[in-house]
Inverse folding.
């Protein structure tokens, strides 16, 4: 079915305009006014191309018109028009104007004005609306024509500025621009996990016919389904994204924006767009019709759309979208504290992740013991859901608590700095044998500047009223290593982590008078002008050591 260009119908247009001019002399009627409007619409319209997808930009409340002309045919000839809204709902309609008998041609004798008015009325009566639609779905009109006719398409957006695509074809036998959808275009959800959803859909007939140039592409988002590919593109762009053409649905190596992440694995191209409403993912999966979407968030509703895409033309058709909610992640089982048992907890400071421990009291009075090994940690303790203690830990901390039998205690530990932190935790009844030795008032090591020589250093530390074992270790370090050594020191590690050459001595001492429970030690055999790291370990009845705070001392250069 051939197309006539504007100049083919030029005699008709000129004659219509002549009729309009003559009709002004006669009294104005409703039909004449309608005819004037129709002529105005045709003259302010654009020709719609045949066999090509046309992008049309619409301004709010301003109609836009396109027209095309069909030649007279002896048989009914089909044509189709497909309109794809790319954002908000629009209104569009098709009007047809069939040329009346005697146009174009010569007028018979008589009163010209009367004849022209009659023709105007007849022409106006032959302009009719054959289709209209309002919405944001992809809609196709299939028509048949055997008469010479002029068709007018009118588009209107009443919500905001937008754009649409329009495809007109009079050649319905040589194939389709858009890939075909199956009879049942629904997407089925066949599996749901905590972080995955498995989808399947019926094969498109286009895959069997043009397998190499056709592929399925999946869109995943947390907002809603999209009825067309251009609608999805528009939504993502409105969130501030700049996307490569057709959402990277061809495998061309597009340059990505900073908000995009491209993942290529197992011959799949996946692009993740970071937008304000969450992630929008696009994955092209070839001609497979089953796909498991990975790396989803638990207990989150996702919307899934599948598009069948022609890679040669970038034309696409949308399956009926679906949605699914991933399973809620089960709460991790909280480890239990047993009476007297020590648990060593390591926390990741970068994630600020907390760690929980549970303890069920078998006695009214209990003791919680915390030995901070590295970093900084905050502890929060609840009893039957009510807070009973919350503080930052430092060194060794005892927390005696009193409650009822079978009370449930929840201990939550959280790192308060970016580096990793660790702590040892123990819960026990008040009469239980203590895990750690009796501690002095301070765990600081003191050095005596006046007693320093080029070859020796004198240090002192506090003891207790209980006879205990103390071991002294030394380590030569460089000046630029001091801060790192002091920060990274594991205060829970014992002498077993030290080299044998670093051991200086071990000694026992105590004093019932705490004012005199102080001991000193002079470490000899050192090098002049050198930094040394000194550590003291206190051992109690259980054999678990407590490390004093490390001390760095420099020997004199000259003596």
């Amino acid at each position: 079915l051939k197309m006539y260009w504007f100049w083919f119908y030029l005699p008709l247009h000129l004659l219509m305009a002549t009729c309009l001019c003559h009709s002004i002399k006669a009294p104005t009627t409703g039909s004449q006014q309608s005819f004037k409007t129709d002529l105005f619409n045709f003259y302010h319209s654009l020709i719609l191309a045949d066999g090509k997808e046309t992008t049309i930009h619409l301004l709010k409340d301003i109609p836009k018109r396109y027209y095309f002309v069909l030649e007279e045919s002896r048989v009914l000839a089909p044509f189709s028009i497909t309109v794809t809204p790319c954002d908000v709902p629009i209104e569009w309609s098709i009007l047809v104007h069939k040329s009346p008998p005697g146009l174009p041609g010569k007028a018979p004798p008589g009163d010209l004005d009367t004849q022209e008015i009659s023709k105007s009325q007849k022409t106006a009566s032959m302009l009719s609306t054959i289709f209209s639609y309002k919405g944001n779905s992809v809609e196709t009109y299939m028509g048949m024509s055997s008469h010479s006719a002029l068709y007018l398409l009118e588009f209107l957006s009443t919500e905001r500025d937008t754009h649409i695509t329009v495809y007109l074809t009079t050649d319905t036998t040589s194939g389709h621009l858009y890939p075909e959808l199956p009879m049942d275009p629904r997407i089925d959800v066949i599996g749901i996990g905590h972080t995955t959803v498995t989808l399947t859909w019926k094969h498109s007939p286009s895959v069997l016919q043009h397998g190499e140039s056709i592929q399925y592409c999946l869109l995943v988002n947390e907002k809603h389904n999209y009825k067309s590919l251009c609608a999805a593109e528009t939504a993502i762009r409105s969130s501030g994204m700049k996307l490569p053409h057709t959402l990277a649905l061809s495998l061309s190596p597009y340059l990505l924006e900073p908000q995009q992440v491209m993942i290529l694995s197992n011959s799949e191209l996946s692009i993740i767009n970071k937008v304000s409403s969450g992630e929008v993912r696009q994955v092209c999966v070839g001609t497979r019709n089953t796909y498991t979407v990975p790396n989803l968030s638990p207990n989150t509703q996702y919307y899934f759309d599948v598009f069948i895409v022609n890679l040669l033309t970038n034309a696409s058709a949308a399956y009926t979208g679906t949605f699914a909610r991933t399973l809620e992640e089960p709460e991790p089982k909280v480890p239990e504290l047993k009476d007297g048992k020590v648990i060593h907890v390591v926390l990741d400071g970068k994630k600020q992740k907390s760690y929980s421990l549970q303890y069920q009291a078998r006695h009214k009075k209990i003791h919680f013991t915390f030995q901070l090994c590295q970093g900084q940690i905050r502890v929060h303790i609840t009893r039957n859901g009510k807070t009973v203690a919350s503080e930052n830990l430092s060194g060794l901390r005892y927390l005696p608590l009193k409650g009822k039998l079978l009370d449930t205690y929840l201990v939550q530990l959280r790192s308060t700095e970016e580096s990793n932190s660790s702590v040892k935790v123990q819960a026990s009844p008040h009469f239980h044998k203590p895990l750690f030795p009796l501690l002095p008032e301070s765990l600081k090591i003191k050095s005596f500047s006046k007693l320093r020589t080029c070859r020796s250093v004198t240090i002192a530390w506090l003891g207790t009223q209980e006879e205990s074992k103390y071991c002294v270790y030394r380590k030569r370090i460089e000046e630029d290593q001091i801060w790192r050594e002091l920060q990274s020191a594991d205060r829970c590690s014992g002498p077993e982590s030290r080299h044998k050459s670093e051991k200086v001595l071990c000694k026992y001492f105590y004093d019932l008078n705490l004012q005199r429970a102080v001991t000193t030690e002079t470490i000899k055999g050192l090098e002049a002008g050198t930094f040394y790291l000194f550590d003291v370990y206190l051992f109690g009845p259980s054999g678990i050591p407590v490390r004093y705070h490390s001390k760095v001392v420099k020997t004199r250069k000259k003596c």
About this structure: The radius of gyration is 43 Å. DSSP finds six helices and 35 strands in the chain.
